[in-house]
Write a structure and sequence with these properties.
By secondary structure, the protein is α/β, with parallel strands linked by helices. The chain is about 50% helix and about 15% strand. The protein binds S-adenosylmethionine (SAM). S-adenosylmethionine (SAM) binds near residues 111, 137 and 158.
């Protein structure tokens, strides 16, 4: 339980920042001892950020962590200089916690797909009463839309983060929709129950998603991924719902 957590990039970044704090502290003490001079707090923050960025590079964090690591200590200084009310930090922390929940582990944050993608996915649904699931359904837009178009089908969304899940559940009640919203982790579901599995996740999630879909989905059923391909597995079709935007990849299971 602890080791997988330590492998999460956000946890690694935090640990490296703590390590950089320690190294910076020792450096400042060394400078004070040898040269008898003190470094200003902004310079110390920049030094810590630089050490953290260098360590992040050394430990192969994705490149976009480097500017975050570099600027994090200075940003802390600036924000604390604003003397904002402490309750604001608690409120923002709780809001982002409920919105992003375990994104630091799954590496799949919330961001919605474009409404045009819903039309493109609707066109992929088989005739009859399809069983459809959006794995990581966010605020439920995709599932609610499809459920309103195809009243004979079964439309399910599963979402790990409490805030989007609650919003989608309330939206379904408000609209008297037949859509179902589950709160949980899609990795615990059996994909054999669905004709179409739709995913808008992240590159980090795709290899394991393929393994699960390939071992559980029935022949002829569709795995659909917006934006993110699956390395080493050519899709059966690719379309571009938004001109100039990301691709919609479709694999027919066999
Ligand atoms: C990029 S958003 C996509 C939202 C929605 N499907 C759409 O197309 O607008 C990805 C969502 O997947 C959720 N998620 C990530 N990992 C998950 C998991 N293992 N089980 C369920 N939901 C997950 C995230 O909380 C996030 O809300």
């Amino acid at each position: 339980m602890v080791w997988p957590l330590l492998r999460a990039p956000a946890v690694k970044a935090l640990l490296l920042q703590c390590f950089a704090f320690f190294i910076t502290g020792l450096t400042l003490v060394g400078i004070a001892y040898v040269a008898g001079s003190r470094i200003g707090i902004v310079a110390a923050a920049l030094l810590q950020g630089s050490v953290a960025a260098a360590l992040s590079f050394r430990f192969r964090l994705a490149f976009w962590w480097l500017p975050i690591q570099l600027l994090f200590p200075v940003t802390l200084l600036v924000v604390s200089a604003l003397h904002l009310p402490p309750i604001l930090f608690l409120v923002l922390f709780l809001f982002f916690l409920l919105l992003y929940w375990s994104s630091f582990r799954t590496q799949v944050p919330y961001f919605p797909s474009h409404p045009a993608v819903r039309q493109a996915v609707a066109a992929l649904l088989p005739a009859g009463s399809p069983h459809f699931i959006d794995i990581g359904s966010g605020f439920g837009g995709m599932v609610l839309h499809l459920a309103s178009l195809r009243r004979e089908g079964v439309f399910v969304g599963i979402e790990i983060a409490p805030l989007p899940w609650l919003a989608s559940w309330l939206r379904a009640r408000w609209q008297a929709s037949a859509a179902h919203f589950l709160r949980g982790d899609y990795t615990h579901l059996n994909f054999a129950d669905y004709d179409v599995v739709y995913a808008y996740l992240s590159p980090a999630a795709m290899p394991a998603l393929w393994g699960k879909a390939h071992s559980e989905m029935r022949d002829g059923c569709l795995l659909v991924s917006y934006e993110f391909p699956i390395p080493g597995h050519e899709p059966d079709s690719v379309s571009y719902p938004v001109s100039g935007g990301p691709a919609l990849h479709v694999w027919r299971m066999r």
